Amino acid sequence: xxxxxxxxxxxxxxxxxxAWRPQEAFGIHTLDATLxxxxxxxxxxxxxxRPVDFVIVTGDLTDSAQLNELxxxxxxxxxxxxxxxxxEEDGVERDVSxxxxxxxxxxxxxxxxxxxxxxxxxxxxxxxxGNFPINRSSPWQEDWFAPLLAPVADFAGLHAFDLRNNDLxxxxxxxxxxLLGSGxxxxxxxxxxxxxAIEAGPIVSDEARRFxxxxxxxxxxxxxxxxxxxxxxxxxxxxxxATHYSARPVPGVPIRLIVFDTVAESSIxxxxxxxxxxxxxxxxxxxxxxxxxxxxAGEWVILASHHPASDFDCGLIGDRVRTVEFRNAIAAYxxxxxxxxxxxxxxxxxIVPGPFPYLEITTASIIDYPQEGRMLDVFLxxxxxxxxxxxTIFSHTESPTTxxxxxxxxxxxxxxxxxxxxxxRGPEDIKVGDGLSDGDFSIRLRR
Length: 447
Hints:
Largest sheet: 6 strands, mixed
Order of helices and strands: HEHEEEHEHEEEEEHHEEHEHEEEEEHE
Mean pLDDT: 92
Number of domains: 1
Number of strands: 19
Strand content: 15-25%
Radius of gyration: 22 Å
Helix content: 10-25%
C-alpha cells in the first residue's frame, strides 16, 4: 500500500475503515512475516511428507491498482530489498527508531524458493482504491485517472485545487490530502488519523505510482524471479491481458487449479464497483470448459477467485451469472473440491449443497485484524471416493518480527474500537482475543 499516494480517499476514514489504517505502512513487513510463518510450516513438513505444495493469494495485492504497490508485493514474495516510500524519499526523516521505521529499505525474507505461488486479480488490483473504475484512454499511463462524482470528489478534498477537479490521479504533483513518509499526523492513544492536520497541496510526483493495466499485472508476475515462471500467467495471458488461468500446481498430483476473474470492469459513472461480478462470457468460455477438461483428464479441481460467490448477486447490470446459477453448476461436477476466495477480510467456510457438495472457503486478510492465513490439507482416502479437507489457521503473530508485532498491535486497536462502536460499549469492555480466529476444521466430501 502506497500510503503517500495522492489517489487515495483518506478523508473518508471516519466512514470507511479501508480508507486509511494506522498499520498500513507496515504492509510489506506483515506480508514478509507471514511468509516466514509459511516457510516454517514448510520446513517442519519436509521429511514428514507434508511440506507446503503451493501458496495462493486471493487478490488485492495492491491497495489502489498502482504499479509501485504491485512491484513491492512481488519483490517481497521474491525476497528482495524493498523501500516502501514513494514521491520524495523522506522516510529517513521519520522520528522513530530505525527498528520501527517502516519507510526504510527492508531486506525481505520472501517465500521459500521451493514453494510455488499463485495469485488472483482483486478489485483493489483493477480499481482506484478498490472502488472506482479507471479511465485508461490516454496513451500515457501517468495521465490515467479515476473519475468521481462531484460531491464525492469535494469530500475527498479534490476541490481544494479546482472546483472542476473530480479525478483521482496517482502520478499527480499535488494531493488532496498530503501524507508524507516523514510522518503521519495521528492521535497516539487511539491511532486515529488527525484530519485537522492534513492539508491539500503540491507534492513530489512519482511515475511509479501510475495506475496499472491488466497487462502490467501479468508482466510484473512474469518478471518475478521465483516459481513457477509467470505464476500461472503465460505469454498468451500477456498478449490478451486476461487475468485468469489454470495450472497443475503439484507435479504428479491430479489437481487442477482454476483461477478466474470476478472484478467489475465498469459501472455507472462514479458509482463504486467493489463487488464481485461473474460475466457470463467468462463463465461459459473459460470456467465451464476448464471444468470439463479436468473431468476428462481425471483431475480434481480447486477453484479460486477474489470474491466469494455470494457477491455475484450484487449490483451492476449486464449479462452475468448470479450466485445460485454458479453454485448449482459447480455442484454438478463430482471432481470439484472447493472454491477459495477472500475480499471480505473475514474467515468463513461452508458446504455448498448439490448433487456433489463442495466447500466454499473465504480467508481473512493480513492487512486487517486478525492478520491470518489458512493452511489447507487435501487427502484422497483409501476408498478412492472420499476427499478429506483439513483447515488450520496460522499467523505471523506466533513468531512476530518487530515490525509485524507493531502492525498487529495497531490492527487490534482498530478492531477493538470498531467492536466498541458497533456494540455501544466502552473499548475497555471489548477484547477481540489473543488466540487465532475460528477456522480450523476437518470435512469429508464423498463422491
